[in-house]
Design goal:
Low-confidence stretches: none
Number of helices: 5
Oligomer: single chain
Order of helices and strands: HHHHH
Radius of gyration: 17 Å
Number of domains: 1
Number of strands: 0
Shape: globular
Largest sheet: none
Structural class: mainly alpha
Strand content: under 5%
Mean pLDDT: 88
Distance between the termini: 19 Å
């Protein structure tokens, strides 16, 4: 059963955030595999916590999951648009914690590496905010549905 059009209203925002993340992955791939000179060097794209081959696989998995979520919202039907109390709340809390962690990461980076202030090494942080935004929008939508669903 399709849910009200409200899920379809959220879909463009989810797709926009997903496309932004996909452009980041594509940019990083251009640098890694083609060595394009007009993009930042590879070390600007990564925090160094995970070797690039594993990072790339994880990015493709994230993209696949986000495509499924955004497609469900576009259709107004599917597993990801069905209100789920515990799941929706958990996702929302995760999104806020994820976003807060990126604020702390940015502040720590600016304190520890003042020579790179304000934008040095921020590509990964910015795109973590993009993903956190996707998760938060998804969680907020579920929270709103739960308020509308009679007990």
């Amino acid at each position: 059963m399709a849910l009200p059009a409200s899920s379809r209203r959220l879909a463009p925002f989810l797709w926009l955030l997903l496309v932004a993340f996909m452009l980041r992955v594509a940019g990083q791939m251009l640098v890694a595999f083609r060595g394009v000179p007009w993009l930042p060097p590879m070390d600007a794209w990564m925090s160094g916590l995970m070797p690039y081959p594993y990072l790339l696989v994880s990015q493709f998995l994230i993209i696949g999951l986000c495509v499924k979520v955004a497609a469900d919202f576009t259709r107004g039907a599917g597993w990801f648009v069905e209100p789920r109390p515990v799941f929706g709340a958990g996702v929302l809390y995760f999104g806020w914690i994820y976003s807060a962690a990126m604020v702390v990461r940015y502040i720590a980076r600016m304190i520890l590496l003042p020579e790179e202030r304000w934008f040095g090494g921020t590509i990964p942080i910015f795109f973590h905010f993009v993903l956190a935004g996707f998760v938060i929008l998804f969680g907020l939508w579920h929270r709103q549905r739960l308020k509308e669903t009679p007990a």
